[in-house]
Metal-dependent carboxypeptidase (Planktotalea frisia), 974 residues
Amino acid sequence: MSAYDDLMAFQKETEALGQVMGRLGWDQETMMPRGAAPQRAEEMAALEGVLHARRTDPRIGDWLSEAHAPDEVGKAQLRLITRSYERASKVPADLAQRLAKLTSASQGIWAEARADEDVAAFLPTLKEVVALKREEGAALAAGGDVYDAMLQDYEPGASAESLSAMFAALRPRLTTLRDEVMASEQPADLDFDFDEGKQMKLTRKLAKAFGYDMSHGRVDKAVHPFSSGSGQDVRITTRTSPRDPFNCLYSTVHEVGHACYEQGISKEYLLTPLGNGVSMGVHESQSRIYENQLGRSKPFCGWLYGQMRDTFGDFGVADEDAFYRTVNKLRQGFIRTEADEVQYNLHVLLRFDLERALISGDLAVDDLEAAWNDRFASDFDFEVDKPSNGVLQDVHWSVGLFGYFATYSLGNVYAGCLNEAMRADLPNLDEALAQGDPTSATEWLNEALQRHGGLREPRATIAHACSGVDPSEERLLMYLEDKFSKF
Amino acid sequence: MSAYDDLMAFQKETEALGQVMGRLGWDQETMMPRGAAPQRAEEMAALEGVLHARRTDPRIGDWLSEAHAPDEVGKAQLRLITRSYERASKVPADLAQRLAKLTSASQGIWAEARADEDVAAFLPTLKEVVALKREEGAALAAGGDVYDAMLQDYEPGASAESLSAMFAALRPRLTTLRDEVMASEQPADLDFDFDEGKQMKLTRKLAKAFGYDMSHGRVDKAVHPFSSGSGQDVRITTRTSPRDPFNCLYSTVHEVGHACYEQGISKEYLLTPLGNGVSMGVHESQSRIYENQLGRSKPFCGWLYGQMRDTFGDFGVADEDAFYRTVNKLRQGFIRTEADEVQYNLHVLLRFDLERALISGDLAVDDLEAAWNDRFASDFDFEVDKPSNGVLQDVHWSVGLFGYFATYSLGNVYAGCLNEAMRADLPNLDEALAQGDPTSATEWLNEALQRHGGLREPRATIAHACSGVDPSEERLLMYLEDKFSKF
């Protein structure tokens, strides 16, 4: 066995154990009996210990120094292993352990504080999280920019500077567009009880229509929709609410986008570093293009309207056009995850600016709520009414995910680029979507992007899929301005 | 930290990882999408590698040589860790790996051979399994008896000699009893379609009645009923068949017996060696006493008859007495898992004798089918009609479980002892069972046996629960002769 083969064999086991960890997370959110939580925490901590020891195993360094990649794919494998090894080796074991313990406990404290609308109860913990994440970031940055170092965990190659430029381009045009659309008359809200069993039946039909492979996945209900796993076992969850069928249906299509990316990666990369989605931003490009550019398009909404009439009977929406406007309705809202296509990135931008200030030290944790509320009022023109609609709404900061939020917007921007390239190649796509058939689009995305997994860096992954054109937010803006100017 | 503390901390992580392995097995049988099987095999192999490395970690030897147990519980912990470490250290890593690989593949080969009724397709693999298990047994025996060494994996303290004596006492009286009962008129078979959804509803009610804690467990359907997990997360499966509701209901009560044992172990022993059922035989004593001495008792059957009438309406059984006789009906059958209380142990005995002969070399694998069929005809007075009803019916040998079968009968014998001791303490038990309430019995079993986990050796565990009386098959025989002589 060569050093390369030894390394890849070792890595395969680590990837397999990483999949086990993901499965435990899925089980916890879907199947686990409530009383098992303390034991599950011990199980996950033990497995995390095993994974951490493997990721920092000094033999990896030895193998890397001797390994010769047999081809371009092998070079990409070594690049990802090197990155992961260097990352793991930079963080002292003691710090990694303290962070794991703290963020495991702090999620519960955040959830309780949110339920109690009690920001003060969460702030001492958040201070500790920020302090430890800054310590970790400094270790990772090794003299460079701390926040940039954090970004690499989610979006290799991204920088605060490039993201700031992206948001600077997005903000004025999105705000203008939002104000224009909101000034015109908006469709009424749905007023109908949608049977939850029928929602799940239709949601499974949608999942299959978008190419989700049920022989390598399954759909369950959970409090929060998510996708979990890579390779041959990629599971999704959704949720139902009797008054809001779109929550179920579009959560499903969103998660199917994530899941199809993982399911669609070349079988040759199974249980290797290349066998996972390349970054959070690229992942989100898949979930968002499935959900929005395809799922919320006018032709697809026309087909979905018929499906919903067949499933639920007359639910009080007159025709396809009214249905399309209802699906894409803009509304004043506090919650990022419920935001429409136009306003979503404004929610993200608020978080991006605030978390950078927290990490740089320009904003004290004690001042965070006031800063959030001021910024929200100025960006959205109405006031936050309670912490669960404001600074306590997202789990991310409680578990130390600083640098993550921007990848949501990056995903939207990438989806805009991919949509333009895809539609140039597929002139008849709208006719197929009007028949409820996104197959040509999902096949295009698989061929152009999904099957390559981690072969190229994130931006290069998008550029490769777009005939070499470097991604830009201009594509997303043009798509949104075109779509919503017609309302 | 003392050596004892270090050892126990290490052991706790190993126990937690062992629970993760169990959860993967549960997922595979209940939730996993079909196409995920190859990846799951890699995941389980990687985790098995981690567990094997931990179980043979030389630090365990160092800690054990320095550790001082703080109390009797600590001494029991060290005793179990020592046994596991010595066992793992005796088997060369290479042999352990070859066995793991072989038995992982051979289960599929057995399943296919069984489906095809093709014994010859399975024999080459079985030969390899027998050869490797003999090699492993010789390593474990270190000069002693190979089969006795194998028994220790399932029933520490058991020997072929003591089991032979047990079976020698059981065989003539069970055969006589069987012949007597079968000579009298047997009740008709059920002839009704039992709604499977209603079966599951009633089965959950039964599970709760027997004390199964749903906040630390769950009931799902699977091809084969099983119980999985220890401590705070103990899940069971059952199955439904429209023509045979007893399959569902009594599988559930059986698995609830296993599960309540695990759920009922003292919380102090969570994720320690004492926190698991002490042996297969003692485990089976719990499943069998729940299923038979409690669940198939006349008063409980009376209550269950009412429940089934309420659930399914008139299903063609006239009264409680006829129902009791139907539940306990003896019939000619090929299949061990479907056998009645009287004949079950005769099925086990056949396997015990044949596998001892296989391991000693007195019986060649090529002659196994003929030996099975001859023995079956002589023990049961009718002929095996096809391999799936004969030598290919059980999975055990294909996965190398030699020494396991006898623990089923040992469990029945132990259940007989426990039943006598329990009834002496609970004179009003039958009245409670007639109300569908086995609580006093399950509490007695928890107090006398379940909560102690692995504190005492298996026979001592039973003796402790029975006021110090050493277990004997006489109790089971008297119970069976009393019960079935009244038919």
